[in-house]
Design a protein that fits this description.
The protein is α+β, with helices and mostly antiparallel strands. The protein is 41% helix and 17% strand. It contains twelve helices and eleven strands. The strands form four sheets. Strands 5-6-7-10-11 form a five-stranded mixed beta sheet. Strands 1-2 form a two-stranded antiparallel sheet. β1 and β2 form a beta hairpin. α6 runs antiparallel to α12. The longest helix is centred in the first third of the chain and has 20 residues. The chain starts with 9 loop residues before the first helix and ends with a helix.
Length: 321
């Protein structure tokens, strides 16, 4: 995407920044417009202005290319991110992303102030947080609806960093401290290699090792293995062995890791994989049964699909709401 503003009218620039609510439009990003006066947001074209690029349309009039309808406001990090993955972030995806963000901003601006917040302000008491727990969970569900087709593992990694509350359902509602990209041992004698886990969640006297893939990661092989049986996909089988290896590495190296990380306790580590979309992929009973038989065969490993995770978050948000 070319973010040159040379041909964009000043009125379009002002409207684009004004409508975005001073925030990056990328789901889950809270980058503000300014930091001590330094601009942190950029205008980006949804349909590219550069001939030959993957989002360029030779049929789109130049007036439309530089119009407000073809503009999305992003932080520099996510601007570069969508440029690096044009197949994932197509014109359609970016348009939906922009429209969903504008809808959230409009809703936030028109939503009436709660009576509790008004009462606390009138009495001089502390105000309620800008985002309650139920609102954060509702926001997570909205992000899921917008991004379920996103196949970038980096995107989901960052989402869970920004919204650690999403993991409460994977850990059976237990309170925990979440760390990302954690070393769990496995280096050779020449200090090379090593196992780096996506997330390590400490809860009480135990830990959970969480490995994430994407909603687009396949759960089953494309063809039946034999009869009415479907084998797990290579991605699922590989993830299973990988997270079990991480667990073995953590337990084997626990004395040294505990020495370097005071407070780390792992009496009986649990392993979790978040992967795929069960509802969309397993459309017949044989596929569903094969998947359920596979994941129920593990004792210390929990396999949770993205649609199950976010449906649980939706139900929790409705209960709290």
């Amino acid at each position: 995407m070319d973010n040159s503003r040379g041909a964009i009218r000043t009125s379009v620039i002002k409207a684009a920044f004004g409508l975005t609510g001073g925030r990056c439009a990328f789901p889950g990003c809270h980058t503000p417009a300014l930091d001590d006066g330094v601009p942190l947001l950029e205008l980006a074209h949804i349909s590219s202005v550069a001939p030959g690029s993957q989002r360029y349309s030779s049929t789109k009039p130049i007036s439309e290319v530089y119009s407000l309808n073809n503009i999305i406001v992003l932080c520099p990090t996510h601007h570069e991110h969508v440029d690096m993955e044009p197949e994932t972030y197509s014109v359609e995806v970016l348009t939906k992303m922009r429209d969903a963000h504008l809808a959230r901003v409009k809703n936030a601006l028109t939503q009436p102030e709660s009576q509790l917040t008004q009462s606390r302000r009138n009495t001089g008491g502390p105000e309620t947080p800008k985002k309650s727990a139920s609102n954060r969970l509702t926001n997570l569900v909205e992000i899921w609806e917008e991004s379920r087709e996103n196949g970038s593992e980096e995107y989901w990694q960052q989402l869970f960093i920004d919204h650690p509350e999403a993991f409460c359902l994977t850990l059976e509602g237990k309170a925990y401290n979440l760390r990302s990209k954690c070393y769990v041992g496995g280096k050779s004698v020449d200090n090379t290699g090593g196992n780096v886990l996506d997330f390590l969640a400490q809860h009480g006297g135990n830990v959970a090792l969480v490995e994430i893939k994407t909603p687009k990661t396949k759960l089953l092989g494309s063809q039946r293995y034999r009869g009415n049986v479907y084998a797990p996909s290579g991605e699922l089988a590989g993830s299973t062995v990988q997270v079990l290896e991480y667990r073995h590495s953590l337990v084997s190296n626990l004395p040294g890791l505990t020495f370097e990380t005071p407070g780390l306790r792992a009496t009986h580590p649990m392993s979790v994989i978040v992967i795929g979309n069960l509802t969309e992929e397993c459309t017949n009973e044989n596929q569903r049964r094969s998947f359920e038989l596979y994941r129920s065969s593990f004792r210390d490993l929990k396999i949770l699909t993205y649609d199950e995770l976010f449906e649980g978050i939706r139900n929790l948000a409705e209960s709290l709401g």
